[in-house]
Amino acid sequence: MATDIQRNEITKVEGVNIKANHRARRDVSVDASDVSVDASDVEKYASLVMVVDNSAFVHLGSDKTKVIHFVLAIVNHMDFLFRQANIHVILTHLEIWDVSDKFTVTAITSDNLNHFTQYNKDIMINQNGWKHDNAHFLTHVDQQGGLVGLGAVGSICGQNGLSQAMSQIWSDNPLITAGTVAHEFGHNVGLYHFTSECICDDPPCLMSSYANWSPVRGLTDCTKKVIEDRCSLGKCSCLTDQPAASYMGATCGNGIVEKGEDCDCGQPEYCTNKCCDASTCKFQTHAQCAEGECCTYDCQLKAKDVLCRDAQGECDLPETCDGKQATCPLDVYLQDYQDCNSKTSYCYKGKCTKTLNEQCKTLWGNEADHSRTCIRNYKGDKFGHCGTDENGNFIPCETKNEFCGKVQCHGDIASHFIVFGRSRSTAVYGSQCRSGLTYVGENINPTMAFDGTKCDAGKVCQNQQCIATDIAKSTSKCDDRCHFGRCTNVGACYCPPKFKCPDCSRMDPNNIKGQVCSEQPSQTHRHHDGKLNWEEYLDLLTSNLFLTRWKARVTFKNRVSTGDTLDKYVPTKKIDSVDHAIDNLFKDLKDMNLAPTTTTTTTTTTTTTTTTTTTTPTTTTTTPTTTPTTTTTVAPLCLGAVGMINIGCRSKSGGTMIANFRNAMDWNNPSDSIEKMICDCAKTAKDDGYVGFGLVYWGECWGYSTKDEAVNQSGSTNCSNDQYNSCAEEDRICIGKADASYAFLL
Predict the structure, then answer these.
(1) Structure pTM?
(2) Is residue 184 annotated as part of the catalytic site, yes or no?
(3) Residue 113 maps to a domain
(4) Count of domains observed in the chain
């Protein structure tokens, strides 16, 4: 998937010496849609590694200082060009092969780029530990076919983290060579050569298919628009973090804010930032900040909780300003291998991965689908395999891994690849099968199943192997410990609004818009005492599930406690009916002004006196009076559900209505359908009576009712007969453990 730039005959165009090239465009797009997405209008930073081979070193006089100045001039001009598209190009490492080359450099451009790709992966990334967004190889060896550059289109921010290109030094003017290097970097970002839709009307232009003999002065509007569009789709997601330092060290004017600097907008002649003094790298007098997603156009910090990076897709998370820093917090997303796309895919690196069907459509067109009957990955040839070994031999796929190898497609599809490369077609069981072959670069192969692709239920492709997701997630530090939140890629929980870090199990009214926790959750699922804090849990229910955002800590009357949890509460006296139990709870809530009420005024009331003895309750009715009084009728208590909490209404007559609202509740704006379900549940409870309230554990006894009611309502298959009887003797109900916690109102 490389695109080249050639040197041919010199042609005069509008007074500028440029090189004409009439060859066909050769490029292939790398899909980078499976990574986290960023906003298109924020500043981005491309960290660059430059490698200068021995031929270039010798050509520049075998003088390291001269080489350094030559390279810095190239990078400074690249930065000047791409800043027009909000991308800062920063040199973080420079490697000069002053003694000998680290691999054999030939006149075959594609071979050189392939070797450099492997060198970038094995040495610069894995061995040296360099973290960079792009790598560029400079040589002075003449390349075949008049090529002076080659780069993989759209490789930057790709799934495998590899993006590289190469250029030949064909002019001693570093700004001329900078045009070639910037051109190939443009391909890496995702730019193509000019077309009828995007033309160069003021040469020299960066993305012309020929090399320019004059320095490129800027980017065309359509080039900037292409970059903006790609970034808005997440193709620039790795460019959001500013490098800690540049190769040049701490220098005012290098574009990096370093120790002792407030800001750095580059050289004064290029600086357009009104908040920064380019000559001193200090804020202007009125400024609190100079740039960043959390810095206003008036150079002031944005307020806390202002959205600075929206969630892009179901696998990404939003980030908000903290009110103290000008930059948006680190881009955080959901932990890999969580379900997405209606459980047909998994989250991977912040994006919902494409299904095998979708990958076929990318390769062959919209009519293509993945085919089980076309699978030939067991053959171990170039059109059917699970990767290569250390000697470059194709590895046949084991049966369990066949969906993680070469993508095999069928259907009424194109006769040739949509992308560049060779393809093969074979007929299998009457179906037109397709398998493709293309050169993109080391470990950049769109014809192989992507890492993160779902290969079976509960299984995912990883390095061409179909493995269980629980194995793939084995390094997680927060999996299954985030309660009402979600586990993230940084090992901490994301707590939605109203929930408290670090494990999202408690309430936090100050968490307005959700937040990624700064610390990891504890190893236990429960609080420090080993028990769920019932008051906090009820606080959660009353604040979010009553739809009117009540918030209180409810203390049940007529009960004594031997501990902090509901299962320790016992009745002080026998509750002789479900209605009695409901009345008690409504009275408790009313006393604390929690229960909704409706008030009516009457002109005539009847005073009723109730006298209770140790035997039979008696009621005496006195003479009616005419004094106006207000009668309060307690309305039914509406319980709802949020996150992983469910509500269950068990009626007095034995009927059951349970609604699971997981992932259905809008944290801030409950939908009409959910509200209707909740109110229907409450109406049923009012008419027929609730019988229990509590969190569900395996075979635990909950709630209070008559012994008969306890037996009648003990319908869970997780409770044994002995547990039924035991619960009944205590006037409780045995409720089995479910997939989530049920709440029952007493």
Answers:
(1) 0.48
(2) yes
(3) yes
(4) 3
